[in-house]
Each structure stands twice: as structure tokens, then as C-alpha cells.
Amino acid sequence: MQIDDKPDAGFNDPLGLLSDCHRRVERFLGGLVRVTDDLRGGVLDERYRKALETCLHYFQEAAPRHTADEEESLFPRLRASTDPRAVEALERIDALEAEHLEVDPVHAEVNQLVARWLSDGTLAEADRLRELLAVLEKTYGTHIAIEDQEVFPMARAVLPSEDLAAVGREMARRRGLYPELSWLPAE
Fold first, then answer.
1. Which phi and psi angles does 46 have, rounded to 5°?
2. Domains of the chain from N-terminus onward
3. Which pairs from 164-168 meet CB under 8 Å and 24+ separation?
4. pTM for this structure?
């Protein structure tokens, strides 16, 4: 597992890049589930330890940028749109933002348990970790589907190209990159 896998889209296609990030969320969440299911809190060998460290790092570092990309760059532009499709989607967008807040404490507890597993070498609360991961799987399953299948296509249809370009630039800045230099990696 690598966090810096090259995405299919770049900052010139911010909606594609957001969707690429969803694939990483699914992959790293799947990695946490696999390690938890395989070991059930047991002793970590080097391969499982590295997988947990990578997944934990992703959810602590990269995932919050994705949330900011949506909440600070994309969603405000959709809210400002007068296009009837965007106006109709506002309740859905509000619900998506509420889900971001709902999963924050779940992520915090997952991060705490995984960090404990990494430091102690075993985890007595593996059942609790698996319960929390199941909550994230369910929430992200529907959340990602709504964004990928409804919100992002609608945003592509209603937002002017200048707005989409601004979203891409803001995403790049959040990562300390300069989007006008197309050879830079996305994350």
C-alpha cells in the first residue's frame, strides 16, 4: 500500500481527482479491515505493521485535505450556483457535510486504537476496532456513491470552467503544490 500512487486525474480535473481520492479511501479502509480481520488484534509482523502505519497516516494526513477540498472549495461554489440542479442538490450536500462531522469521532477512535496496536504490538479491543471500521465502511459506501454518481457529475455540468479551475488550484495549494506546474504529483 502506498499513499502516493499516481492518480488518474490531475488538478486540471479536480472532480476526477476527488473521485480518485475516493478510491484511496476505499483502499486504505479496506487495508485496515483486512489487518483487523486477519489478526484480530494479534501480534503484528512487519508487513501488517507497515500496512497499519500507512493506512493510519493516510487517514490522519490525506483524508482531511479531501474533506477540505469538498467543504471549502467545491460545496461553497455549488451553494452559490443559481442553476436549478445545484439548488436541488443543496439538501444532499448538507447531508454529506453532516456525515463528514459524524465520522470524525469514529476516525478519532480508530486512530487511537490503531496507534495503540502499533505501540503495544497487540490490541485487546480488536472487536471494537472492527465495529468502528464497519461503521466507516457503511457510511463511506453510500457517501462515496452519492458524490461520485450524483454530486460530482452535477458539479461538472453546472459549474463554469473558471470555478472548476479555481477548485483545482485550491486543492493544489492545500498540498503545498503549484498547479501551473503540471509535472508535480497530485499528493
1. -60, -40
2. 14-174 (1.20.120.520)
3. 164/14, 164/15, 165/12, 166/73, 166/77, 167/14, 167/15, 167/69, 167/73, 167/74, 167/77, 168/10, 168/11, 168/12, 168/13, 168/14, 168/17
4. 0.89
Provide φ and ψ at 122, rounded to 5°. -140, 165
- From the number of C-beta atoms within 10 Å of its C-beta (0-12, 13-18, 19+), residue 23 rates as middle
Which grid coordinates are listed for 154?
A: 452535477
In this predicted model, what pLDDT tens digit does every residue of 3-27 receive, in sequence order? 455 667 899 999 999 999 999 999 9
Note every long-range contact of 41-47, with CB atoms under 8 Å and residues 24 or more positions apart, other chains counting. 41/117, 41/122, 41/123, 41/124, 41/125, 41/126, 41/127, 41/129, 42/122, 42/126, 43/121, 43/122, 44/117, 44/118, 44/121, 44/122
Tens-place pLDDT, residues 138-184: 999 999 999 999 999 999 999 999 999 999 999 999 999 875 655 44
